[in-house]
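Exercise 7. Predict the joint structure of the components listed below.
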Amino acid sequence: MAEQKTVKFIIERQDTPDSTPYQETFEIPYRPNMNVISALMEIQRNPVTADGKKTSPVAWEMNCLEEVCGACSMVINGKPRQACSTMVDKLEHPIRLAPMRTFPVVRDLVIDRSRMFDSLKKVKAWIPIDGTYDLGPGPRMPENKRQWAYELSKCMTCGVCLEACPNVNANSNFMGPAPLSQVRLFNSHPTGAMNKAERLNAIMGDGGLANCGNSQNCVQACPKGIPLTTSIAALNREATVQMFRDFFGSDYSY
Amino acid sequence: MAGNREFFNRRLHSLFGVIPIGIFLIVHLTINYQATKGAEAYNAAAGLMEKIPFLLAVETLVIYIPILFHAIYGVYISFTARPNNIRFSTFRNWMFLLQRITGVFLIIFIAWHVWETRIAKALGAEVNFDMMANIVDNPAMLAFYIVGIVSATFHLSNGLWSFFVSWGITVSPRSQRVLTTVTLLIFVAVTFIGVRAILAFAV
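Solution:
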């Protein structure tokens, strides 16, 4: 019988949030059309390293398995991306996996993306429609604008743009491109626009819009192809106008 | 304005880089360019600047305060970044890193340059063609000045690109690409003026 073809994985592991990271190598049987998740499942089934040592199974997060939830983001061969949509056949071998260290590591490849969800709350990335009575339908959105806004709504809070950004790190409190682009999305919605100034003021505060250094890595890294740098530049324009409205006073600065 | 400090500081930093520092740099290098027409032409042009009324007040408002703010806040900005150019080797990411490297280097260069010329003048030396000719007589100093001038012209041109994005003037990717070309041409033109001027002192 011909020898079984194998795939080699070098995985950066970490047992607890504060412990020292270490590497382990795994060699798993090859199957056609494998993705990184299916390889991790194989390691979970048989957690034995390449040199035969029994070890704990590698921990990772996953949910949708079709690149819409953002949970399985990790650094694969140096690039942050989703493990579910990364095909083993298209990677350079051995395959190196590491957690996205811009975020606190929980265990192995599992990270805590809370800071992104906190930012979304900070910038009010929603449309308030609650009242004490039925407010009825809001203004209509033109179809071509809806199609345009749909591109911005593809954001899955996966954290890849924060991992790619040189200005998001332990030395700065920059919220990163994803929550900023959400402000552009909700501000362009006819009902959302009623709270436009509130969101702009949130991103004109600490850790907001002005921290962008224009390295434009985010737009290159975004798995959903969201025009993040265009969003940031568009918000820069809005913020310039808002800044003058706030200072000199304006009836349009509510 | 409280709580809005960071936004205000970043915008002020961006503005100061172009107005007045960028304008000052272009005026400065253009006056230096007179050195290519001989010592007398340079001394006449430099002398004209010294005739500006309320010189010290103008220098303080237009040069010293903006440059000090831009430099100090710029160092803070530079050291809050964690460059990742090996993982993301794109053109804009390299410009991002170079903008920070040239900025930090310019603090050293400008401090040295001000000490040798403006502070020397305050202590009694005369600023003229011979002063600069003596400085760049040393090949190491000439190299230091050339690197300093190119850093300054790069930092201005690339900073101009960021200025247009930071103030929301160039939003579309196409306008940003066109601006890359325009600022590149500005870089070439201003560098030519600056380097040719310093070489005129060296011959």
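Discussion. The interface with chain A takes residues 3-7, 9-11, 77, 79-84, 87-88, 90, 92-93, 95-97, 161-162, 165-173, 176 of chain B (CB under 8 Å).
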